[in-house]
Specification:
Layout: H1 2-35, H2 41-83, E1 88-93, E2 96-101, E3 104-112, E4 118-124, E5 135-140
Antiparallel strand pairs: 1-2, 2-3, 3-4, 4-5
Length: 147
């Protein structure tokens, strides 16, 4: 699991960077086109094309990240369904996620202990009528045996 997280993280940040930068350039070209009285058509078109060209690698890195994220979800989802059989609205991405059981939202966090044990920390956010604070459960991630 840790290997998947470490492998997926650079693709996630590359996706974010390229997509945000591409969208920012596209928006800037539109704003410049509008502010300057629609006289900078050629320059705005070139900037828009540049923004699209930056956005495309962001989508590519996003697809690579999704493949790793699907593998992580395939590891986490059976653990959650075994311990919380009524879980709905499940989502897991990189090293965090959430799900709902009986209208209570649980947060999932991946942690690795000093003894190299992989754990899922399940916590409940403090409810308005709850005075105990967070309720925390720790679930073990089973070791994958290589053949």
């Amino acid at each position: 699991m840790e290997q998947l997280i470490n492998t997926a993280t650079p693709y996630y940040y590359a996706m974010l960077g390229f997509c945000i930068f591409g969208i920012a350039i596209i928006c800037t070209s539109i704003v410049i086109f509008i502010i300057l009285g629609m006289t900078t058509g050629k320059e705005s078109l070139i900037m828009s094309i540049l923004g699209v060209l930056l956005f495309i690698p962001g989508l590519h890195f996003g697809n690579i990240f999704d493949k790793y994220n699907e593998q992580m979800t395939a590891i986490v989802k059976p653990i959650i369904s075994e311990n919380y059989p009524d879980a709905t609205d499940f989502y897991y991405g990189l090293d965090a996620g959430h799900f709902t059981t009986n209208d209570i939202e649980y947060k999932i966090q991946y942690k690795k202990t000093i003894n190299n044990e992989e754990k899922l920390i399940i916590s409940v956010k403090k409810q308005s009528n709850d005075t105990d604070g967070k309720q925390v459960t720790t679930l073990d991630i089973p070791k994958v045996k290589s053949k």
